[in-house]
């Protein structure tokens, strides 16, 4: 799965629970993609592109062609969006993780994907990363 | 009349923890009060302690959101002050207990002044493992908004949080909906050189071990000789 190839197919993208991806956001913005990121960590307060909110609990709206959830293992499995999504989660089982991800199927079922375009697993030394590109 | 509460279930703490907490209030609170213990076992509790069934505070069958019963206590009682069993009240708290509750949640709780906010709490914030608040000593008045929010969002809260304090920290401290006790009221025995500072000292070993802090931690009954002697002196106060 070539993530950048997927991202550049869209005119607007919202990244959820993404931590610090300022370089990616700047890069995508520079090639004309309308990007935004939502992360509750206070270090993103007043940072360009970021909305410093909790997308699960806070009353916020986001709309874009693609929504990318970067850390599904850390949140309740919910995205307020109808359309394309890119889901990413891992099985590290870090003690703050409430939703460790053990398969791409788990992501597909938890987020009720209607279509799956691609699935991919990245094996790393300390964890496996599971990615699904599809439609909600 | 001030209504004090505590919760006791399982066998981690014996009845002496309840009885001595009551005795410490009798010694250090100088206005009329009641003291109620919600518990699954009333054996050994002194007769001044009012007893209620802990199941009355458990509308949800869950092993997550540890001590969520405190929120349900606020639903049952419009106003009150709660102490965890593993705290030691060692100075007069009459004035502090009269403090007006502010904030949308309608509750005042402990801010963990003994932990460095920047290097410890903020550094790990995004990983979901930070917690800079503590519900070992809570005063509430009309916590209706918090109770309703908790019920309305229970499914998400239960899924996301292992403990009540984390839920309160990540959802309500983050949105400035809580108020906190003054810095000079509480201290933490295991985090502050094994000393009894301020007026109320927390022992709180479970929180420390979750945070993987190094070194031995002490429960109240394992504390230094003078502290245990003081604690025991409240048995029949």
Keywords:
heterodimer, A: 136 residues, alpha/beta, Rossmann fold, seven-stranded mixed beta sheet, 3 helices, 7 strands, B: 237 residues, Spore Coat Polysaccharide Biosynthesis Protein SpsA, Chain A, three-stranded mixed beta sheet, 8 helices, 10 strands, 20% strand
Please characterize this protein's 3D structure.
The complex is a heterodimer of chains A (136) and B (237). By secondary structure, chain A is an alpha/beta fold. Chain A has a single domain (3-135), classed as Vaccinia Virus protein VP39 (Rossmann fold). Chain A is 15% helix and 29% strand. Chain A contains 3 helices and 7 strands; from the N terminus they run αβαββββαββ. Chain A has helices spanning 3-7, 22-30, 104-110; strands spanning 12-16, 34-38, 50-51, 66-69, 84-90, 115-123, 128-135. A 7-stranded mixed β-sheet of chain A has the order 3-2-1-4-5-7-6, with helices on both faces. In chain A, a hairpin with a 4-residue loop joins β6 and β7 (128-135). The radius of gyration of chain A is 14 Å and the shape is globular. The model of chain A has no long low-confidence stretch (mean pLDDT 96). Chain B has one domain (2-233): Spore Coat Polysaccharide Biosynthesis Protein SpsA, Chain A (Alpha-Beta Complex), CATH 3.90.550. Chain B has helices at 15-28, 69-76, 117-122, 144-152, 154-160, 164-173, 205-210, 225-233, and strands at 2-8, 33-39, 50-53, 79-83, 87-89, 107-111, 133-141, 179-180, 186-188, 200-202. In chain B, α2 (69-76) packs across α4 (144-152). Chain B has 237 residues and is an alpha/beta fold. Chain B contains 8 helices and 10 strands. Chain B starts with a strand and ends with a helix. The longest helix of chain B is centred in the first third of the chain and has 14 residues, at 15-28. The A-B interface holds A 19, 39-43, 54, 56-58, 74-76, 78, 94-99 and B 122, 124-129, 153, 155-156, 159-162, 170-171, 174-175, 210.
């Amino acid at each position: 799965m070539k993530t950048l190839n997927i991202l550049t197919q869209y005119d607007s993208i919202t990244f959820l629970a993404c931590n610090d991806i300022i370089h990616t956001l700047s890069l995508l913005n520079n090639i004309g993609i309308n990007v935004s990121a939502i992360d509750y960590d206070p270090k993103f307060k007043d940072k360009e592109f970021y909305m410093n909110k909790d997308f699960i609990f806070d009353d916020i709206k986001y709309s874009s062609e693609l929504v990318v959830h970067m850390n599904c293992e850390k949140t309740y499995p919910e995205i307020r969006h109808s359309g394309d999504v890119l889901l990413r989660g891992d099985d590290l089982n870090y003690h703050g993780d409430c939703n460790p991800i053990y398969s791409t199927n788990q992501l597909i079922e938890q987020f009720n994907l209607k279509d799956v375009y691609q699935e991919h697993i990245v094996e790393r030394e300390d964890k496996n990363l599971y990615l699904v590109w599809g439609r909600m | 009349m001030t209504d004090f509460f505590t919760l006791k279930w399982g066998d981690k703490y014996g009845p002496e923890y309840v009885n001595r907490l009551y005795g410490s209030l009798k010694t250090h609170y100088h206005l009329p009060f009641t003291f109620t213990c919600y518990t699954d076992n009333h054996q050994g509790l002194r007769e001044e302690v009012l007893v209620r069934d802990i199941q009355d505070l458990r509308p949800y069958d869950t092993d997550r959101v540890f001590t969520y019963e405190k929120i349900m206590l606020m639903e049952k009682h419009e106003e009150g002050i709660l102490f965890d069993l593993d705290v030691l009240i060692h100075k007069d708290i009459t004035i502090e207990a009269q403090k007006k509750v502010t904030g949308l949640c309608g509750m005042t709780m402990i801010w963990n002044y003994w932990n460095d906010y920047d290097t410890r709490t903020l550094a790990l914030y995004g990983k979901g493992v930070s917690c800079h608040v503590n519900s070992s000593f809570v005063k509430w008045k009309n916590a209706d908004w918090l109770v309703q929010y908790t019920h309305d969002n229970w499914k998400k809260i239960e899924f996301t949080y292992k403990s009540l304090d984390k839920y309160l920290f990540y959802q309500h401290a983050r949105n400035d909906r809580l108020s906190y006790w003054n810095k000079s009221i509480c201290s933490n025995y295991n985090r502050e050189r094994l000393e009894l500072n301020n007026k109320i000292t927390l022992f709180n070993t479970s929180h420390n071990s979750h945070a993987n802090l190094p070194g031995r931690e002490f429960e109240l009954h394992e504390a230094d000789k003078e502290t245990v002697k003081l604690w025991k002196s409240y048995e029949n106060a």
